[in-house]
Design goal:
heterodimer, A: alpha+beta, five-stranded antiparallel sheet, 19 strands, B: alpha+beta, Fumarate Reductase Iron-sulfur Protein, Chain B, domain 2, five-stranded mixed sheet, two-stranded antiparallel ribbon, 12% strand
Amino acid sequence: MTLESRVPSGPIQEKWDRQRFELKLVNPANKRKYEIIVVGSGLAGASAAASLAELGYRVKCFCFQDSPRRAHSIAAQGGINAAKNYQNDGDSIWRLFYDTVKGGDYRSREANVYRLAQISLNIIDQCVAQGVPFAREYGGQLANRSFGGAQVSRTFYARGQTGQQLLLGAYQALARQIGLGAVTMFPRTEMLDVVVVDGHARGIVVRDLVSGAISSHGAHAIVLATGGYSNAYFLSTNAKGCNVTATWRAHRRGALFANPCFTQIHPTCIPASGDYQSKLTLMSESLRNDGRIWVPTATEEQRSADAISEGERDYYLERLYPSFGNLTPRDIASRRAKEAVDSGRGVGELKNGVYLDFRDAIQRLGADVIGERYGNLFDMYERITGENPYDVPMRIFPAPHYTMGGLWVDYNLMSSVPGLYVIGEANFSDHGANRLGASALMQGLADGYFILPYTIGDYLTRIGSAPVTANAQAFGAIEEDVAQRTKKLLAVEGKRTVDSFHRELGRIMWDECGMSRTKEGLARALQAIPALRDEFWSDVRVTGRGENLNQTLEKAGRVADFFEFAELMCVDALHRDESCGGHFREEYQTDEGEALRNDDDFAYVAAWNFTGVGEQPELLKEPLAFEHVPLSQRSYK
Amino acid sequence: MQLVLHVWRQAGPNVKGAFATHRVAANPHMSFLEMLDSLNEELAANDEEPVAFEHDCREGICGSCGIVINGVPHGPTRGTATCQLHMRKFRDGDEIWIEPWRAAAFPVIKDLVVDRSPLDAIVQAGGYITARTGSAPDANAIPIPKDDAELAMDAAACIGCGACVAACPNASAMLFTAAKASHLGLLPQGQPERDERALKMVSMMDAAGFGGCTNHGECEIACPKEISVEFIARLNRDLFKASVMAVE
Ligand SMILES: Cc1cc2nc3c(=O)[nH]c(=O)nc-3n(C[C@H](O)[C@H](O)[C@H](O)COP(=O)(O)OP(=O)(O)OC[C@H]3O[C@@H](n4cnc5c(N)ncnc54)[C@H](O)[C@@H]3O)c2cc1C
Ligand code: FES
């Protein structure tokens, strides 16, 4: 197999136009002869399903929640980037492109990122037209803020609920198409496999989560918009249902998985309060605009924050990075927090956090101003911890948050399996080794509204519109596979609960394949994961039956897939003998402890081909060229 | 802390349910759902089926969770969804009654899980602005006064959990419907379809088996986003205007 990125030739500014011209169009009258399956109803899936239906295709959309509006995208807080330059502060498509490639630590495809920056403009227009109530200035124009250390204000936001409002916009567009009969919606339905016929994706096998019935759906093309895999760590900021099942199952059927070790750990989350902890809550990054991060200089410090004098505090980010201070990029801020805690200077009852302190900002600006800026976040913090951040500093700690890796796709967003498209967080495309704040929402909507609806037509014209029926032999065999797997989970009848296995797997991943990684640690993980997986399959207890709503069974299936996938994350992390973005290998750092890339040997996308569970996967490399953003060492000193 | 839980157990839609009593130990820092997780771990360890309940984000934004706690949708703390409720709001020795949303339009699927798809049907009937992908003018072409945008955002904050329905003596979905209609109706982009939207959404609300609104105001108290009943008055004005126009 070779990797064909299908990036069009010509100047980078013209590539997307050129591609749109060169792609074949489906005759409008023929569109309704094509059926397209969209799995996922988050920003990527809902926007794609609605836009495809508007074009005239027949669409089936699936999600596991009870309503498409509940997809994990709903939880995004901070905002969405666009190079509108409404603030006249020097932003441009080129600058957004440049920042994203550089922020991704030079492990993304330039052409894709350029297109993303171009399309960012259309996204905001589209969302406003749908009624997304973005923040406004007094004159009625859209407001912006600077986010995640960007030097320009290009982030659009709707209070702390940007993801919610964007998703509701896409959900309403989708609802309209459902009402018109152009989209058939299948909520509470989980995709458990992809059907590949003669090398082309032709359908999916799903389980109805209420009745337990397993069935197949055929289509001319399949779109996966199933989100990221941060829950491999068990504890993450993602919604509890987020999982790798759809993409992993597709991977097992031939779709290459790219850069699985590129995961993002978000620096400002609320630390765990005990071993019952079920998930971690993100506190918006914007808090770092006014909060100062510190730990006591002494280890084993017992006093409360207010008793610790200025000289006994280590504002370590301000000390190490005088020009960026508390606004250093996510990966750096996270790693430094871990160092502080590992060195025994952690704060809180469990000594598992660092302070994010608003004392000085409150003194300088007044509690009112701070309340206006962060009141909602402070309330949320107090609700969870019982502590009031106006009086005592917040405690924060990094948590898994976003996954840059995902199924490999070409410039048209098609995976290595013809007819199988992957959009949103589920693909690997635009963020390289590190994603900038407010860029995931942008990418999900770019893929769903403005890229996929064009590119998919080219494939459809080539395969023709003969109906695809789900009764071919291939479908039956895969349905049987899925049914057997479900039976097998129920038949183990062991002693340990699904969650206890997931927690243990998550612990291994966090320790060995989390914020910093070593050759030895990864080798340990590659011993431990298969052993734990074997134990899972011999000792897990899945209560209940397969023929009705069974949440334990749903979880068990997802954890079983995480067990296979986790190994691939470690294999990828072990093979990448360099540090870049979210992938920090302790062996590869500068004298100052910063990530040390190895562009000579690793400026490529690592795309893995499945060869069997527990087998060494095959590595394919897509070389990356940086013609417009010159390779340089990131420096935030 | 030690607690006595009375949990509604119901194997399926067409079977009778009943309360089952369990004793659990909880930590005050746990969230309410983490307390239920730990009950479920215990049940599973004893080979009993865990309590089915809905949840996803656990941050009060997706609207999945929804449990009636001691007779109150989402429990004792105002403006707080079940998943954001923490056990420090309870006391050692408390007895807690845990039930699903109760409404004719929301049949129980299992234990605490109900079918809320009629809420989606209301949105499908008209809860949107028609704006085909690609057809939008520049985002700043139509300025929107800040106060209008803020008020629209207040209404748009609805998470679609259905607590308003569960709290309403008539099991009406009027607050849910009014929040969406107001969000869109307050914006210039929402004007062309405003009348039609109000009529279509409310008639779908009736058709989907929800009751009518008789201004009890329980919905606002139960709403985890504290959405104001003033939006209902706003929708009623729109409805009145739209039906007069329709007659003319
Ligand atoms: C707390 C938090 C805050 C964030 N804040 C920001 C921010 O401010 N700005 C920003 O740009 N990004 C932010 N992000 C990241 C961003 O929210 C996500 O990357 C993005 O929303 C992902 O969208 P998606 O459409 O790809 O997937 P999702 O929204 O995760 O949707 C996945 C969909 O797939 C469905 N699905 C999954 N598996 C299956 C299956 N097997 N069968 C059927 N259906 C399935 C689900 O039901 C769901 O509908 C944040 C993330 C988190 C966790
Ligand atoms: S679980 Fe999402 S709102 Fe409670």
